[in-house]
Amino acid sequence: MPWTPPPLAWKTTFWMLVSPAIVFAADRSDPATVPFTIEPTVAMQGYDGEQCWVHARAGAIPAKDSTRQPSVVMTMQKLLLSGSDVFYPLHQTRSENLGNTWSDPVELNAFARQRVTADLSAPLPGGASKAPELVRAGDETTVCDFTPKWHAASQRLLGIGQTVWYRNNRVMHASPRGIAYAVFDPSKNQWADWQMVKMPADAKFTNAGAGSVQRVDLPGGEVLLPISFRDPTQSQYSVTIVRCRFDGHTLQYVEHGDELTIPVKRGLYEPSLTQFRGRFYLTMRNDDHGYVCTSDDGLHFETPRRWTFDDGNDLGNYNTQQHWVTHSEGLFLVYTRRGANNDHVFRHRAPLFIAQVDPETLQVIRASERVVVPEHGARLGNFAVTEVSPTETWITVTEWMQPAGVEKHGSDNRVYVSKLKWDRPNLAWLGESTAASDSQTTFDTASKTIAPYFSPPRKFANDFDDYPSPLVFENGSQVKTLEDWKRRRGEILAKWRSMLGEWPPLITQPEVETLNTQQRENFTQHQIRFQWTPNEKTTGYLLVPDGEGPHPAVVTVFYEPETAIGQGTANRDFALQLARRGFVTLSIGTTEATAAKTYSLYHPSIEDAKIQPLSMLAYAAANAWHVLANHPEVDSQRIGIVGHSFGGKWAMFASCLFDKFACAAWSDPGIVFDDNRPSVNYWEPWYLGYHPKPWRARGLIRDDNPARGLYPKLVADGHDLHELHTLMAPRPFLVSAGSEDPLSRWQPLNHSVAVNAILGHHERVAMTNRPDHSPNDSSNEVIYAFFAHFLQRH
């Protein structure tokens, strides 16, 4: 029986406002203080008296290597001074030298205002289709309060804000406000057209926005996005966290958490979220006070409480934003407040302060408070925080030149970039530190990391598309019980085995020859040779971690075995990374066939293969399982398999056809047939389209280059790979999807979800998504968490 796992640059003068008097250092005598200095700088200044810059927010694109600097993209927009919140299209300025110089601001055509036309057949802009009765011809919309932030899993800048609507260039207060987003692709150096997040068709989300918020990106790409919304029947705004799936192109709603508000004036709005040491912290604006609360999962929160100092006195923040600065050693709040000789400033929105927060009492430590941006009469309440590197965090803000006359105090529409320079590196940079102190902590962290990916976006929930249900027997009867499924599973497996070709007997007692041994880091590496087919041996690498066994184990498969042990392309070193984490790993690959460009295994010979080559690869992996299972340091009940691309196809077929693999991770293999994608090429002779040489020309199926062998028969008979996926149940599997497996792959995966439901199991089918084929640190972190959750003891 298969093992059942546990549940689960503007070229202008650069102003350096730095002198010995205003380079602030933390008090080194206070052991609770996280030391840093503040370097306030000005990227630009000056305005024409009619418009001024607002909403300056930056996103940092990480440097590709240690010899380069991050590339920083800062967006901002013009405000009409004679109006109220009348904004014009976003502009962009860039710095390639950590803010020493900035490029000239350039208007972004993708963010031009969109207008409702008199043509009733024309699509409505800016999400107005959710409430068309609120708009009429001539109304305009654009994006405001836009915050770009690096999304590590997709390797893109993801900017999120909200729409604002105008009629005769005045804000429409009854409007279909929505959550707007756009994607900046560094490889193309441009923003895509902005889009709207499609929320549930509920009246309360007719007026919903994510302007000026801080979000949390989870490993693997899930986005926890704080929003505010208002039911048209209510006077107060509410705050919630929306869990979204982002694949590098589309931001899709999955679910939302608690709906938080208070019965005070306009309620709660402009929320900002952060994660610190495993907990989530949410700060929110209210007309009278700032509020804060915490959560274990980022969706369900304790009751909001007012911000206070640690002496119990009110913080004095009201009717404006607060945002987080998060360092791995400490949590900080940036805010404005009363009581700073600032009664002349509109709503006391300057100066801008930073202070450390006690994460247990949720109070601001008064002794740690410092000015991070100085006051010159203009308000500074609309600002942002940017993590630039492990050693720098920036706060960006403009002097908002309303109301008239603020310039008499010295303001000049400065665009401030105030740099926090950490004395010790910020290990939480671009993500929560996941260091674990014991096996239970490792398991808990892994479980939290993988948890979001067991559910599809709302759009694909319970969507099976046209894939035939595997829960129907060949005679047309329906699978209804566990016993039914056992019989149906046998039917599916027998059918596929007959189509693919029957395997030779497994090599259950393989003779393993050790060729070389060396100690590496916290594990021992053995180069070994063993029989993996009846007439072939292979050379691979066995990595055994230090410490007492038995250990969980993972087989890694690829074109050759060296890449997985760290001797090839980055982020494909699965064997190395898992060995570092306490797994025995066995890295194997088709070295000779790859060199010959035949890639696969052919039995009994390449001239007359009787088994489809991809199935023969699965057979070889099953024999590799026996190598691990017979090793004294391995727990044979806890062996998984992982591979990327070619290796992803290999790992998928191996785990589906051989049920002793306890779980599996498949990185962007193309999990179902797709004749339009050249990399989802199951028709090739080294996969499922074997035919004697000469082989068809490599590439897409065309009239002059048709598929041959088994593949066209599989397609003609209505078979697809979702049938094989169901053979995994109840064993868990993760699809680490990239360019070849978009979010719509949930349609075939939902069939495996349905099979697991019949068996009484949930959270056994997971998928992460990224736009690129290549894996990255973020997508791989979920792979490692997946194996830790399902294979490591706790």
Automatic annotation (TrEMBL):
Gene Ontology MF, one: exo-alpha-sialidase activity
Signal peptide residues are 1-25
Record key words, sorted: Signal
Entry superkingdom: Bacteria
Q: Which Pfam families match?
A: BAAT_C
- Mind listing the GO biological process terms from this record? ganglioside catabolic process; oligosaccharide catabolic process
Q: What is this protein called?
A: Sialidase
Domain (BAAT/Acyl-CoA thioester hydrolase C-terminal) spans: 623-667
| Gene Ontology, cellular component aspect | cytoplasm; membrane
User: What are the TM regions of this chain, as residue ranges?
Assistant: none
